[in-house]
Write a structure and sequence with these properties.
about 140 residues; 7-stranded antiparallel sheet; 3-stranded antiparallel sheet; 1 helix
Length: about 140
């Protein structure tokens, strides 16, 4: 029996691939650098508490990052697309996992390894460097 914890969300939202994680309210809280995304944590109240996340997206630049603050306060960043359909991801509070916003509940650990649905490969995990209230996410 699979005991993986999942987000409980309406099927309607899952059918349309609508994730629970929002974008930052302050659009100036992050910017795209040369192969990086630079984040100003002082402008991101969404990430003040552990187990919170934001979507950093710029369609014109092809940037789609999920930034998660883990329960220990460390930051994790991912290319925000599931392996089986390129849908967005959401963190699962209390589980240190990520889950695809689709009906299938595909779940990954914080290292990007699939935990359900027997998928091959890993999520694209980005390196995050923190200096005071600034993060640098390396997109390579």
């Amino acid at each position: 029996m699979d005991t993986t914890k999942v987000l409980k969300r309406p099927v309607f939202l899952r059918l349309f691939g609508l994730c629970a994680t929002g974008q930052p309210k302050d659009k100036t809280s992050w910017r795209i650098g040369e192969g990086t995304v630079e984040v100003d944590l002082t402008r991101l109240p969404e990430l003040q508490q552990p187990e919170r996340a934001v979507r950093l997206e710029d369609n014109a630049a092809g940037i789609r990052v999920l930034l998660v603050k883990g329960p220990d306060g460390s930051f994790h960043a991912y290319r925000n697309e599931c392996l089986h359909g390129k849908r967005r991801m959401d963190p699962v509070p209390g589980a240190e996992t990520l889950q695809c916003c689709s009906v299938g509940h595909t779940t990954y650990d914080y290292d990007g390894n699939p935990l359900t649905n027997d998928l091959d490969g890993q999520l694209n995990v980005y390196t995050v460097e923190q200096r005071d209230d600034a993060l640098t996410i390396k997109l390579d």
